[in-house]
Amino acid sequence: MTFFDPDKQPAAYLLASGRNGTLYIGVTSNLLQRAWQHREHVVDGFSSKHDVGMLVWFELHETMESAILREKRLKKWNRAWKLRLIEERNPYWNDLWPDVVGAGLEVTGFPPARE
Fold first, then answer.
1. Residue 32: CB atoms within 10 Å
2. What proportion of the chain, given as a percentage, has pLDDT over 70?
3. Residue 31 C-alpha from the chain's centroid
4. What is the chain's mean pLDDT, rounded?
5. For residue 42, is it within any domain?
6. Mean pLDDT confidence for 85-94
7. Which of 77, 86, 94, 113 has the fewest CB atoms within 10 Å, i.e. is most exposed?
8. Residue 108: inside a domain
9. Tell me, what DSSP letter sits at residue 38?
10. CATH number of the CATH domain containing 76
11. Which of 25, 22, 38, 47 is nearest to 97 (CA)?
12. Cα–Cα distances in angstroms (integers) from residue 18 to residues 62, 96, 111, 112, 115, in the given order
C-alpha cells in the first residue's frame, strides 16, 4: 500500500478502460480528487467519452514540474512501452483506486476536504 498526502502530492498517472484497453495519461497535484473525477465522469472529455476510469499506474513526484515533465515524456512513448510500464508494477491491470483511497474504504461521493 502507498501512503501519501493526495492533496499535496504531484503525480503522473495512467488510466485504462480495461486490460489492454484505451489509455489516458494525466498529471495532477491531487491524485485522489482527479482519479475520482475520472471514475465518476464528472468532467466531459476524453476519459468520459471513452469510459476510461480505471487507475492502472501512478508515480508520485517531489514537484509539479517533474510530474508534468514525466507526463509529457510518457505521451511521446509508443503504446508497447506504456503497456510494459503498467505491467511492470501491475501485471494483472488491477484498479489501483483502493491503494489511493485506502484499502477497504468505501467512497460513494466526492472525497471530503482535508483540512
1. 22
2. 83
3. 7
4. 85
5. yes
6. 96
7. 113
8. no
9. H
10. 3.40.1440
11. 38
12. 29, 12, 24, 27, 34
How many domains does the chain fold into? 1
How is residue 109 written as a grid cell?
A: 461521493
Greatest Cα-to-Cα distance within the chain, rounded to the nearest angstrom: 41
What is the grid cell recorded at 32? 485522489
Q: At 45, which amino acid appears?
A: G
3-state secondary structure (DSSP) of residue 58: strand
Establish if 113 belongs to a structural domain: no
CA-CA distance, 15 to 94, in Å (whole number)? 11
> 35: domain range?
11-97
d(Cα 93, Cα 54) in Å, to the nearest integer? 9
The 10s digit of each residue's pLDDT in 41-77 is: 888 899 888 989 999 999 999 999 999 999 999 999 9
Say which range, 13-17, 21-25, 101-105, has the weakest mean pLDDT. Answer: 101-105
Could you tell me if residue 2 is inside a domain?
A: no
Residue 6 has pLDDT above 80, yes or no: no
